[in-house]
Fold this protein.
Amino acid sequence: MNKRKTTEIRVDFSFKREVFFVVIGAMLGAVFMLIPTAFEVGMGLPYYITWVAFGHVIGVHSSDAAFAGIAIHTITAISIGIIIGVFLYKTGILNISKISNGLLYGLFAGTVVLVVFFIPIYFSILLPEINRTVAIVMPTSNDEYGTSLPHYSFPLVIISYVIMHLFFGITVGLTSSILSIKFGSRYRCSKCDISFSRIDSYQKHLELVHGEKPIQLTRILILGGGFAGIEVLRELQKAFQNDIAIDITLVSRDNFFLFTPMLSEISSGMIETRHIVTPVRVFCNRAKFYEADVGSIDMNNKQVVISHRIGKQTNPIESRSHILNYDYLVIALGSETNFFGMDGAATGAFTLKSLGDAIVLRNHVINMLEQADIEHEDLDLRKRLLTFVVVGGGFSGVEIVGELNDFVLDSIKYFYHNLQKNDARIVLVNSGRRILPEVTEELAEFALEKIRDNGVEVILNTRVTGITPSGVKLNNGTDISTETIVWAGGEKPQSILSALSCEHDKSGRIVTNNFLEVLGFTDTITALGDCACITDPITGKPYPPTAQHAIRQGKVAAINLISTIKGEENRKKAIDYKTRGVMALIGRRNGVGILLGYKVHGFTAWWVWRSYYLLNLPTVEKKLRVMVDWFIDLFFKRDVTRLKTPSEEGH
């Protein structure tokens, strides 16, 4: 039975990464070996002279002999550590994903360095050289272990070398073991599709979960793969990485995490599409993941129904449903576009909520430019094709209109020579008396002035009353003829949440207490992110649906959930996050915002916005890719390549 279970193991293993951990450990070990010499440097005592002798042996007789000796000894120790580590990995004799095994490996490595390398070299080569060096440096001494220096007896010197090599070995073993557990191999259970950082945890999982008498698991179900859901997942995995009794599952309609603050830059082509998306499975080491839609939530029976389509997504054969049971539920389903019952908005307007939205909008804008370039002699048609209307003057609308304006004008300047910049009409329609109600009046006025300076036409105190195939109708009686309407007028919770038997606010968001627990289900259900109404204890108003708040809520929700599961209710934490600031880009490397209570605008705000969100991108790879995209944008023209979808190709 045990032999069969052992063969089920799947190891997500990177040989280069594991060797790198051993190298780091060996380097630290070599440094620890040198610490005792710090007290002897300049005193001419034997251990320091050992390094000088090492240098002499390899042909260095200058004042740098000691440093050369240290270098050759360090390189040799590291090399032997790597060879031993590789041997142990390849043969499977010792798996250092256990601290105890790492310690054994280190002691073995230190012993090998001492017995195989140091002692033979010491007696055959170093000792004579040490005596010659001592005779030169200390002419009054008979030799290194002579009667003139009786306190440096031969046995004590050997013991000191043994201790130093043991220090080296322990450092190598513990360092490489800790790094391997933290960042190295993952031991994946093929039945559960979860992985463990330690081999002993994996073996314990097989025994207790898939053995003859399975234990009862504590099931945590996370709904949503946005900022809030991913942050909860990260914290839970960190806390329960090697807790066999905890089962974690995440459900998301997409198999990727989307960095939504940069969506507007995707629509303008400034950033490559894949650079702001990260596969959810990258985050799911200790958790199962299902790409599926949430069909229903039964809060009383602790069940969630998920569904997914079978076959081609464009023409699926069937839809399959599955029931997921839970002990603890985390609802972080985000929001969807709110059209406020506007006629034609859902079908006639573009939105910018998903990656697909950004791609479709970008393709459409380029298509309008291409058509206008061909039809440039038809003035009315050209005007309609080059009119772009954005509805909504909040952060989303302002950032979209800024990027859209830059993209259209730059594209006309460099690529569409039958068109002029003044042919394009970019319009922002806002129902309020000013844009950006989230910032101060002064900053909103600054943003309005800059947007208008950039060529955007801003219409305030005006509502859209209808969207038709030929354009937009405004409540002041004006009709704007256009082929491009972008709706940024508001958001609402997903419709599935309205059916839940819990308290909701006016917009339909789930009401929680300050511990982010759903009222009436405080022991089992947590809600956070855009779909939750969480009161800011400082302002008394609900937290806004932004990334910074979702991330902070994710941390607090995870702390409270962990405390509840561990029975440490006194360690639960109430949300008390103070908004660090609000920022928005307005185009042409300009921005506005309030940062830590200070008003910022212009290039400074633009730079702060980019720096903040760059730091919050989920992986180093994505950070580097976005940085490269931004750098390229400084020196090269925008890309107006339009990648047609299959449906567009068919027409």
About this structure: The two ends are 61 Å apart (CA to CA).
